[in-house]
Amino acid sequence: MTSPLRIWSLPWALRYLKHEVLALPGRTAALLFVLFLLLFPLFSQDPYLLRVLTLTALFALYAASWDLLSGYTGQVSLGHAFFFGLAGYASAILGRELGLPPALTIPSGALLATLAGVLVGLPSLRLRGPYLSLVTLAFPIIATGLIFLFPRFTGGELGLSGLPRLGQSRLEEYYLVVGIFLLSVLFLWKLAGSRVGLFFHAIREDEVAVRMVGVNTVRYKLLAFAVSAFFAGLSGGLHAHYLRVAGPDSLSLFNSIQPVIWSVFGGIATIYGPVAGTFLLFPFLEALRVAEELRMLAFALLILLVMRFLPQGVVRGVLERLEEECPRCKVKNAFTRKACRACGVPLHLEAREVKP
Amino acid sequence: MVRMAALVLGLVLGGGSLAQVLRIGVVGPMAFVQGEHTWYGATLAAEELNRAGGVLVGNQRYRIELVRVDTNEMTSVTDAATAVERAITAQRVDFLIGGFRSEAVLAMTEVAADYKKPFIITGAALDGILAGRVDRNYERFKYLFRVSPTKSSDLARTSLLLLGEVIQAVRRDLRIERPKVAILAERAAWADPLVETASRLIAAPPPQGYGAEVAGTWRPSATATDVTPELTAIQRAGAQVIFTVLSGPVGVPFGRDWGRLKIPAAAVGINVEAQQETWLKATDNLGAYVATLNTLAPAVAITPKTIPFITNFQARFKQFPIYTASGAYGALYILAEALNRAGTTAADAVVRALEATDYTGPAGRIVFDKTHDVTWGPGYTTGLGVQWVEGRMQAFWPRNWRVGDRVVSYAGVRPYQLPPWVVEAWRR
What is the Cα Rg of chain B in Å? Predict the structure, then answer.
């Protein structure tokens, strides 16, 4: 007789890997993706490729942060660049004025963005739908105005340059950003799957009903704003130090719209959807540099096609075809299985003609 | 044995042909006229240099190969910086020229500095791109140079000199001893110091100032589509001159409304829209008599190279060159001469040779100052004052410009003409 497996022991991990990860195409893809990111430098240390992947990881975190607020909680932010840009500027100014290293200024910038998230969230509590989106849209515009108002402090149109580097080489910067990205996305994913995430979902679907059962929706909405702003700020701070410039471009409308495009492309309210969306679209746009005139056109065409044929986003669209839910126990199964891996119920029941 | 011979032959041929090519990245927003003209200007220079046998470096002749780098910098600074890293690492360029949007140039030059690649800026004007970087952190930023335009504080100086020229014309032709000047500046940070300096200079007594009166300051949005309220207010304020500080699209509605309402005040200063050859078409011919600073004008020989450059450019590209074209054209020649003087392609030696540049190009004589910026002033690069008269762009400044004991005039520069309705309204 064998003794029960101890959790976190090696045999347990192997079994978990076999039965819970490799059994499902989605989870296998996620594992391969993480391995790819961690092992990529073993195959190539081309600085340009590392740069593209680093920026993609940065923006994927930014898109995931948007998804938590807008996809899960339904508070559609069209001014997410406010948090992204604000943290970049805060980190640059703190570094310049106090001489602090990026390891301190980037988290400080992200905390300031968190505070800004709560402040943006407060007036937004009375607004819903497109009205809320319009209010969020105003914040980066106000911030840009303030930047131009105090050029001596903010560098005006030119922005602030000469920020310290994140690492000594592109490789160091790559591992730092990828590490932060993986941990942050794991946190966001766990949060979205937790009880709190359930409330976020519920607020999006029917806020009045959630309030009816005694949940303080104000607190959860502000929490969504704060957490989302923190991670947007974190990516904004990393981005400023990676480019070594914190400028008004980080607050541009284009920068606010980008996470929306990536998230909708990948599939909203999933966290992994925006990550996949960014990792597909950002390198794709880079690859299109070979056809400079057609670059933006081809990019727009791809998005249109995906929205036409996979309106729920690429990831969901693909996963729905690769995985199947057991009609009895609701466990997910790979599309190749004939019977459910948990309860053994046949999965592909063909409709048989019933004779009277 | 055969394989060995093939290998040696391959090395000689392959290595030899590779060593004879200089790859130069031309960076800019290629979907916009500024980027497109950067590319055109560089192309013209590269063709001329290659036709003349290439660039002699040491005892080796190099052929120039241009690499077109679309930075998409108008939309995304991140994209611009990535484009430069791609050009350096994947497309293996040795030198870079171009750049237009100041914020993007800042990020792009950070990448160039990381790789120690000389970068000659040809389109961005803000002072802070070089000042505070090359002088404070020389070892990192010594690879950056600017040939055009003159830095924004020098552009401001030129525009104030143009204003002085028009104030003189008002005094002379309208016999108004103390003209009133209205300041019309777009609401942007870059315009603020210029508005402040202009206000001070207009009111100060000569010889330091113009001994005129400030009628007021109006600040429309850079993207305004109607400036009628500002213009009617300026008319009510009794101004004879409008000093414009406009870089955005507001320049076009300004020209249209000003000509349509026949505002009795002469317009002069900076109006980027009026620098383009499409100005009269864009304003339905109502923008006639508008004056602005510019880099080149038809039939004005700033140097002996100006007219041949404009003629060749127009023959090849069917357009009148803007400042990024003359900048990129000059930049390539400056680089070629520096390589020739350095006798090597090693970046540090080329930088030292670039610092010793004294080159006369189509837009003026280029000598770098201690921040590697183009020197402004008589005998160097000054820019032009141009005015739209008789359906074409005509230069009116510098004409008998006295600086110390020097008198600066360019061939083909005609006197400034006040708009006839201004003369009619104010002549006593």
Answer: 23
Question: Are B106 and B135 in the same domain?
Answer: yes
Q: For residue B106, what is the domain's CATH number? A: 3.40.50.2300
Is B376 inside any structural domain?
no
Residues B105, B152 contacting (CB under 8 angstroms)? no
Residue A271 near chain B (CB below 8 Å): no
| Chain B residues with beta carbon closer than 8 angstroms to that of A157 | 102-103, 126, 188-190
For residues A15-43, average pLDDT: 94
How many domains does chain B contain in total?
2
ipTM value for the complex = 0.91
What is the interface size between A and B, counted as CB pairs within 8 Å? Answer: 81
The residue among B244, B242, B325, B241 whose CA lies nearest residue B277 is: B325
CB-nearest partner of A254 from B76, B83, B106: B76
The owner of tokens 């870079």 is: B96
Sequence-separated (6 or more) residues with CB below 8 Å from residue B16: none
B28-39 pLDDT, tens per residue? 999 888 899 999
Q: CB neighbours (10 Å) of residue B299?
A: 15
Contact B77 A243 (CB under 8 A): yes
- In a domain, residue B375? The reply is no
Measure the CA–CA gap between B22 and B64, rounded to whole angstroms: 5
Strands, E, within A234-320: which ranges?
245-246
**Which residue's entry shows tokens 């319009």?**
A134
Of B30, B104, B110, nearest to A244 by CB-CB distance is B110
Q: How far is Cα B289 from Cα B32, in angstroms, rounded to an integer?
A: 27
Q: To which residue do tokens 């002699």 refer?
A: B56
Contacts 24+ apart (CB under 8 A), A308-312: A312/A267
B178 plus B48 within the same structural domain: no
Q: Do the chains contact at A155 and B133, CB–CB below 8 Å?
A: no
Residue A237 reports pLDDT greater than 90: yes
The 10s digit of each residue's pLDDT in B24-70 is 999 999 988 889 999 999 999 999 999 999 999 999 999 999 999 99
Residues paired with B67 in a beta bridge:
B25
Domain assignment of residue B134, yes or no: yes
Domain coordinates in residue numbering, chain A: 46-275
Q: Are A266 and A277 in contact (CB under 8 A)?
A: yes
- Tell me the residues of chain B between 87 and 146 that have a Cβ less than 8 Å away from chain A: 89-90, 102-104, 106-107, 110, 126, 128-129, 133, 137
Residues of chain A contacting residue B81, judged by C-beta atoms under 8 Å apart? 243
Residue A336 CA to residue A324 CA, distance in Å, equals 9
